[in-house]
């Protein structure tokens, strides 16, 4: 049987419709408009694209947005002063500092400076810690998007053997942490692989659910998975350009061969990508509700 394609585009659309309705109600009943600010330092083209899509999604859903595009030579002090101002701004419920920052700025210090109540990325250590103890205010966007892809595709997570390839702070570790929680949509047994894992295929072949966030094009091939696996491919690799100059993307999974063995698989593009921004919107709405005592 052909693999079910787990479409992030479709699932993100459903969630955005739900959010749009909630945002309209917040405005009508409570005169509350969720507000997100994006802060970009420098001119990294990929970051500019990401920030552009975040602002566009805010507009589409009725979220108020502000955008700060700062020159690459902005000092850390100037950035911290701006964050302090935004922490106090009542129109702003979520603050997103686009990473990576230029090398002369200490990313950790900047992320620590964001008020945890406005940390809609879920990267502040307070929010990381709350996730660890199973009491999260904000789940980090990409891992939360992955969990939603699985739940809304009807994949049974409870009791499943989940193997995560990658241990970054923004994807690998938090998705493992989310899926081991004693909660609905979790309760999985999770293994994390990384570059020092001795025999990665040994682990990936055991997976009922395989989540790959390595940043290595087609690192997972059909011989590394079992029949009936559910695969979530987080990787986004630029492997060339079309004659029109558009980036050609591929994931970390060899989609064409792995889909022949998989029960379900998410594509790249159109898988995890659209979910990340959607979860950012969900966190911004939550932050607005918390600020108004509605959540
Ligand atoms: P990262 O910080 O570079 O981490 C990559 C992880 O994968 C590391 O833990 C690394 O192990 C591990 N790894 C790399 N090659 C491996 C291999 N051959 N075998 C086993 N483990 C390997 O990357 P990231 O930020 O987590 O992102 C991963 C991918 O997801 C990237 O392609 C990124 O663009 C994509 N991404 C997509 C979204 C989205 O919204 N769609 C969001 C975030 C990230 P070590 O720790 O041992 O080095």
Summarize the structure.
This protein is of the alpha/beta class and 295 residues long.
Could you explain how this protein is built, in words?
- A hairpin with a 5-residue loop joins strand 9 and strand 10 (247-250).
- Helix 1 runs parallel beside helix 10 (272-291), helix 2 packs across helix 10 and helix 6 packs across helix 10 (272-291).
- The protein has 10 helices and 11 strands.
- The strands form 3 sheets. The chain has a 6-stranded parallel sheet. The chain has a 3-stranded parallel sheet with strand order 3-2-4, sandwiched between helices.
- It has 2 domains: 30-117, Leucine Dehydrogenase, chain A, domain 1 (Rossmann fold, 3-Layer(aba) Sandwich); 141-273, Rossmann fold, CATH 3.40.50.
- The longest helix has 23 residues, at 8-30.
- The chain has helices at residues 8-30, 45-61, 76-88, 107-113, 125-132, 141-152, 172-180, 200-204, 255-258, 272-291, and strands at 4-5, 35-41, 64-70, 94-97, 161-165, 189-193, 209-212, 230-233, 237-241, 247-250, 264-265.
- The chain is globular, with a radius of gyration of 19 Å.
- The protein has 295 residues and is of the alpha/beta class.
- NADP nicotinamide-adenine-dinucleotide phosphate (NAP) is lined by residues 142, 165-168, 170-172, 193-197, 200, 213-216, 219, 234-237, 272-273, 276.
């Amino acid at each position: 049987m052909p693999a079910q394609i787990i479409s992030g585009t479709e699932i993100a659309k459903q969630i955005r419709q739900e959010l749009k309705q909630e945002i309209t109600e917040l405005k009508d009943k409570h005169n509350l408009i969720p507000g997100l600010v994006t802060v970009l330092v420098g001119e990294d083209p990929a970051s500019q694209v990401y920030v552009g899509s975040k602002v566009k999604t805010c507009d589409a859903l009725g979220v108020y947005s502000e955008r700060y595009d700062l020159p690459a030579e902005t000092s850390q002090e100037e950035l911290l002063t701006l964050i302090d101002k935004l922490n106090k701004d009542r129109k702003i419920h979520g603050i997103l500092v686009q990473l990576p920052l230029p090398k002369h700025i200490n990313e950790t210090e900047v992320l620590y400076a964001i008020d945890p109540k406005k940390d809609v990325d879920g990267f502040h250590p307070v929010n990381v810690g709350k996730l660890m103890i199973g009491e999260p205010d904000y789940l980090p966007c990409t891992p939360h998007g992955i969990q939603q892809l699985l739940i809304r595709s009807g994949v049974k997570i409870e009791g499943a053997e989940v193997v995560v390839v990658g241990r970054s702070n923004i994807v690998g570790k938090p998705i493992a942490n989310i899926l081991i929680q004693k909660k609905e949509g979790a309760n999985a047994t999770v293994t994390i692989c990384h570059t020092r894992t001795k025999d990665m295929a040994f682990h990936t072949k055991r997976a009922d659910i395989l989540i790959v966030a390595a940043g290595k094009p087609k690192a997972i091939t059909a011989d590394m998975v079992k029949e009936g696996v559910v695969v979530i491919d987080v990787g986004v690799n630029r492997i060339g350009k079309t004659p029109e100059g558009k980036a050609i993307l591929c994931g970390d999974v060899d989609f064409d061969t792995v889909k022949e063995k998989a029960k379900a698989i998410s594509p790249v593009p159109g898988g995890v990508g659209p979910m990340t921004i959607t979860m950012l919107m969900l966190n911004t709405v939550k932050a607005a509700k918390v600020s108004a005592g509605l959540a």
